[in-house]
Amino acid sequence: MREPTPTPEDDKTPDTDEEIERAFREAQIQRERQARERLERGVEEPVPPRRPNRSDLNAPVEPKTMRQSSRGYHNEGPQEVEDLIDGITFAARYLGSTQIWSDRNPSKNVRMLQAQEAVSRIKVPEDETQPSTEIDLSVSTEKIQVINATSQEVMMDHALRTISYIADIGTILVIMARRRPPRPQHEPGTEVTAGHRDKKQHKIICHVFEAEEAQLIAQSIGQCFQVAYQEFLRANGITEDHLSQMDYQEILNSQEIFHEDLEVFSNSENAKEVVIDKPKGEIMGLVIVESGWGSILPTVIIANMMHGGPAERSGKLNIGDQLMTINDTSLVGLPLHTCQGIIKGLKNHGKVRLNIVQCPPVTTVLVKRPDIKYQLGFSVQNGIICSLMRGGIAERGGVRVGHRIIEINGQSVVATAHEKIVSMLANSVGEIHMKTMPQSMYRLLTGQEQPIYI
């Protein structure tokens, strides 16, 4: 149900754009100072080896095995569970960092290409001196810290949940983390859209290190995710009875697919052809949003209508209606910005023909979960569904990415704290009834965003 680590949000984590950039500047200043000192000396002085904070770090590592930890569950990986919870420190050299834009869910191959690109930006040719800073890399189930080995000042501090990929390429280690952008400074109730990137993309920061134990460090960070998830299950009272893939598949096979779209689309009375007459030069007066990943037909939904505009005047359209075609052009599967462009192009038309499916603005979801040990298969952040496991019980129940949860089992959660919503879902069994709607539509209907009509 959750992303790699269930650690709750910590607003104090110093991983905002400004703080990372400040760390870059400080590290760069130190590297330049070290380079000047080496030039003034005229010779390279041997650097004495640093001792890691843990005496057993550089000892030979056992082959990767599955063994029982003292906390009562199986542990697969090179490190002891207790050590990962307390934190392990590795000696490494920090070479630099770079930023790239990335899709939110790129493939493993794409992530590796991104890591290689980061290395190519930072690593200098073999015949040149590589600027670097000696650091201690602290790894735990809570966070990853980059600490200056000389001053012991924290250069970077990332919550484990923000780490999106780790790559080891020989002795080079790349750690990629999602960046938290600074909160926009604008008046409440206004929408800032101009000049912004596609919301499906986000900025990631790639830190490049050099260490003899690069592979071991990467394995240890990966193991941290496993341990953090097991700790989450343990904290929520889930027993050590492990759920095999076969067990989960049997649960899926025993469930019927509940999807409000099935009922809506199978009823021919809900499909309508609407013809709207309007003066040329007048916009349609619509706001549309995506139906959300998980809907049977990916298309756009009417989220708002301009008072007195052609769409509202016609009396034939309602908020929640899904648009299938406009003037014989199908909108199914098209990106939101493409659909918006098609509607904007109707300004000079006097007659517009639309095929719609009448749907309520609120989506009904029914997830069947026979036992708490079966994962729901989706994650929630501040009441918004942000990821969905393909083929899981949540997808079969009609859960959609990008929707805000309005109600759980008859109880409104619009003003409920994130931790409370997660707890309600994590501890729910049997039939879980939810009502959701697209987050963009919710913000428009509640006045948190001003509509931009097209």
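The above is record 1. Record 2 follows with the same two-line structure.
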Amino acid sequence: MRRRALRAAGDAGRPTPPPLGRQRLAQRSGKPQATRGGGCASPRGVVGRLPSEAVSAVPYRRTFARLLSFLRPYKRGVAVSIVLAVGSQAAQIALIWVTGRDVIDRALDDHDPHRLWIYVGAIAALGFVSAVFMLGRRLISGKQALDVEMDMRQGLYSHLVRLSFGFYDRHQTGQLMSRATVDLQGVRFFLGYGLIFFFQNLLTVASVTVVLFFFEWRLAFVVLAVMPFLVAIAYRYSHVAHPTLRDVQQKLADVATVAEENIVGVHVVKAFAQEPAEEAKFRGRNEALFGQTLRANRQRAMYVPLLSFLPLLAQAAVLLVGARMVARGSLSAGSFVAFNLYLAMLVTPLRSLGMWVGQAQRATASGERIFQVLDEPEDVSDRPEARDLPPGEGAIRFEDVSFSYLPGRPVLEHLDLALDAGTTVALIGHTGAGKTTLASLVPRFYDVDSGRVLVDGIDVRDVTLASLRSSIGAITQDPFLFSTTVRENISFGRPELSDEEVERVAQLAQAHEFVERLPQGYETVIGERGITLSGGQR
């Protein structure tokens, strides 16, 4: 089969010329012809924003529910973690019970050393059981955290590589990288640790509250009095923190974008002596991040101390009231000690409520940004009935093709163009006339707005992308090399090529001689984007 190839000069300029009008270019007498025309260039550099980079209208409760769905494949591990948490809490509750009721009220009052040793042994055993359960829970939840992070990162990457060129024309690499790294880490920490931590604390609050009522209901009501205030403050903090933390994540992505652009474009920056200007740009983004982070810290400083203070206030009130009850004889010393130990168990999760709310809101804000990428539609994909492109001659035809990158700004309008197999065609036109656009429509880097692109009489939308693109040889305007060996770069897309075939390709490209002079020849690892090679060598 003759390999199909379409090579076109670039249209990297800005959209200034008028669009191509209705016209026909046909091959006559076997002689290639060309046309000039107007058009609009691709919006490369005209960067859009994902919805989450603006004010999001998605309720954070819905985002939170979607985050929880990532735990569904690991529900067995979650269940085991919860069971281990229950076991750990039960052992701690029993430990305090033995300490207060048995050791203080019985063994010490009876002056029975034998019974005291039994209780001490029981306390040690319960402490050991609690520690073992806690260790198991941490190991399982830690693995779950990594599993969820890996699944989300793989899902995000798999979706990104399936998105069309149009998506990448509109969005910055740094923004996407931030979602795949910083945002995922925040979600991972919450789903792996924060959520189990929340369930454990919820279990602690519920179980200890019941035990407190069993010991002394009057003191329990003193503790219960602060609960409504804690819930109200936590609810208010969650509503205040969410938009702020979402903006922090966005500002962090802005900083990453500027840093990524300047590292990749360091040669351009230095060539134009723009280091001071780029430093100023980065400083502006960095200061914006600092300001938003400072705002989040101030919000935390306003609400978290209140969430920590109220449980301590309840504890102080219990000490005051309980001490008087012990003095009057209405409460035993052992019960009073046990009550305060249980109260200490209760105060810890209540005081950490603010930390958990902040962590949950940060994870939800990060999840919101991740889901905005995952919800991007795959606007160029295989049709359900798509079939492989059969072997053919390679004739290409554009039938009444119209295309635009942005609504209302057409690049091609009602274009008819026939390219016979075996001919060489040069597309000539103004910068931004649509030459590269025309070439990009054949392998379906973009889909036409109307009309058809045919290869050997077959609509390119009726064949699979893999078979279509594997039949097209393309030389891009901007050569890109991966940070791997020369051999792997040459055989990219065709890993089955033998060493002899790889060298033959290099010889055809007149690259064999300089490759042989490299330190390890074809096994030389070139830098990112081929930075260790000259422009001509790339």
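The two ends are 29 Å apart (CA to CA).
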